[in-house]
Amino acid sequence: MRLDNYQTDGFYDEMFDESGSPRSRADVLASRLSALSDGELVRRQKAADLTLLNMGITFAVYGHEAGTEKVWPFDIVPRIVDGSEFEMIQRGLRQRIFALNLFIDDVYNEQRILKDGVVPSELVFSASCYLKQCVGLKPPGGVWCHVVGTDLVRDGDGKFYVLEDNLRCPSGVSYVIENREVMKRTFPQIFGGLRIQPVEDYPERLLETLQHVAPPNTQSPNVVVLTPGIYNSAYFEHSFLAQQMGVELVEGSDLVVSDGYVCMRTTRGLQRVDVIYRRIDDTFLDPQSFRPDSTLGVPGLMDVYRKGRVTLANAPGTGVADDKAVYAYVPRIIKYYLGEDPILNNVPTRICSEPEDLQYVLHNLSQLVIKPTNESGGYGIVIGPRASSEELAKCADQIRANPRNYIAQPVLALSRVPTIVDDHLEGRHVDLRPYMLYGKDIFVLPGGLTRVALRKGSLIVNSSQGGGSKDTWVLA
Prior knowledge:
This protein has 476 residues and is α+β, with helices and mostly antiparallel strands. The protein has helices spanning 27-34, 40-55, 83-107, 112-115, 121-125, 173-186, 202-212, 235-245, 301-306, 324-327, 330-338, 355-363, 389-401, and strands at residues 58-60, 69-71, 74-81, 147-154, 160-166, 223-226, 248-250, 255-258, 261-266, 269-272, 275-278, 311-313, 345-346, 350-351, 368-372, 382-383, 406-410, 416-421, 424-433, 435-438, 442-444, 449-453, 467-474.
């Protein structure tokens, strides 16, 4: 396959440098791609697509006119991250999650960081994911965020930056595992002689983490995965992880509070549940504590949780730390609790609730990326340089009406990786979501979910917005 006409177009390309030569971490892969006969890579891609279809690996897009369920979009050319570089990422993520866990615990208990004025109280208390019902809570082992997915981007300078943290119910890890499985099935020879760190043991490590954070003195903890049901966009992942861990997949109606404990209805009667890996939003967990109209949760669950008789992973209330306005304060949070500078830097962020930042944003809308602080999935984002004057005017009105709900960041020149387009390779922008497990210690899965913007020139990588994914290789 010819690679000599591949264009980097002035972006940081993760396989080729500015001169068009393969980077050292990717030279073996580049030579193997070059050795393929014409059409071979496209045939392998079609085989991968068919495998994904036959394996039933799907995701859902709400409101999509062609129906909700879609086959997972996957590009067969892997993304390579150097082992020493990922070691730095691991250290940075461990530092970040450790500090954010201390922050969440502090915010719902002593509130030292608020009293000391390091993070504005009003910013925290006005966050939509701050839950008064969680004040005074002490989760087992002091761990609030057991499963975390943090989004990283590589800018034009070649360095990784943290784009956002996901501390509630981060999704996508099942696709990390399945992407590797599909690669092994359809393109096994591409792995030959390369030492690539494994991802297949994630479900085993997840189960160990969940068992470790069970209520004290629990023998052989009974773990379940709580799903909203088959119509949720991540239902494939819920069922996949439950099956891989060898635990029950349950809906709220399968659980009941009995004699002060959470129990699962079975054909042999009620069975006590010790740990719930919940994949439903906080406010749907318990209609007696949160939304009274919720049919997804378990009435009385929060009372059992407060008494320390069941563990919820992640703990309710963790969303206060992935509010995009709070994100801007994470460097200060790390300094406050750990006395350290961040190993991984944030993307420079303007907080529209701060008057000086607000004026700057309103005067420079056409050069910035505007994000709602509480949306996810790429929804609500306005990319200034690509927006019409009408869209910018509407955005300005929305910001003025509710400054707390918006942040602004510079437009990043996201790194690109070679991606199959028709019968050749073109550069497409990517991000990276590594996954962390916080139990006895903090484990970072080597690699993570590389999401790729499949549309030419697009910077939006979310699958709900037309993005796809790649297998991510961390070299040992």
